[in-house]
Design a protein that fits this description.
Elements lengths: L5 H10 L3 E6 L5 E6 L3 E2 L5 E6 L3 H8 L2 E8 L2 E12 L2 H7 L2 H6 L9 E15 L3 H15 L6 E6 L1
Antiparallel strand pairs: 1-2, 1-5, 3-4, 4-7, 5-6, 6-7, 7-8
C-alpha cells in the first residue's frame, strides 16, 4: 500500500505535460481525449481550454462526471471529478499561452473557445515510491527473486 496525500496528487498533476480526460456520452460510450492542463490548483482542481463545438464538449454538457488519468513509468494516477463550463474572460487572459493559440485561430475571443474547470473529488494512485528508477529496479528484483514488486495503490478524497 502506498500512502498518498492531496499534495502528492497535486504534484503529479502539475508534473504531467498532458492528461487523458475521459467523459461519458448519453449512450454510455466513453470518450478519452489528451488534454493539456492550463492550471492545477493546490486543491488538485484543473483548468483546461477546449472547443465548445466538439463531441467532448457535448458529452460534458450531458454528464459532468469525468476521469483524468496520468501514466508515467512506475506511476499511474486516476482522478475523478466534476466539470463546469466557466465564462470568465479574465481567467482566459490569465491562462492564455502560445500552445492555446495554436488551437484557437480567433485567439482569446474565438467563439469556439471554452474554459473548463474540473473540481477533483478523489484520486487513486498506483505506483512505486521513488519514481521511474525505483520502479525499474523493483521489476528487475522481482524477476530475479520471483517475488512480487513493491508498490501498491491508495485512494485519497480531494
Amino acid at each position: 500500500m502506498t500512502d498518498i496525500t492531496q499534495k502528492d496528487v497535486t504534484a503529479a498533476l502539475k508534473k504531467a505535460p498532458w492528461v487523458m480526460l475521459t467523459t461519458a456520452r448519453s449512450d454510455g460510450k466513453l470518450l478519452a481525449h489528451p488534454m493539456v492542463p492550463q492550471q492545477v490548483t493546490d486543491d488538485s482542481d484543473l483548468w483546461f481550454f477546449l472547443s465548445l463545438t466538439g463531441d467532448q464538449a457535448e458529452a460534458l454538457r450531458q454528464g459532468p462526471h469525468v476521469n483524468i488519468s496520468v501514466a508515467e513509468a512506475g506511476t499511474w494516477l486516476s482522478v475523478s471529478g466534476t466539470v463546469a463550463f466557466v465564462q470568465d474572460q479574465a481567467k482566459i487572459d490569465e491562462l492564455w499561452n502560445d500552445r492555446a493559440a495554436e488551437w484557437f485561430e480567433g485567439g482569446r475571443t474565438d467563439s469556439s473557445l471554452g474554459l473548463l474547470k474540473v473540481a477533483s473529488n478523489s484520486a487513486q494512485f498506483w505506483g512505486t515510491p521513488g519514481g521511474k528508477v525505483r520502479s525499474i529496479a523493483e521489476l528487475v528484483k522481482s524477476r530475479v527473486s520471483g517475488d512480487k514488486p513493491s508498490g501498491g495503490s491508495d485512494t485519497v478524497p480531494l
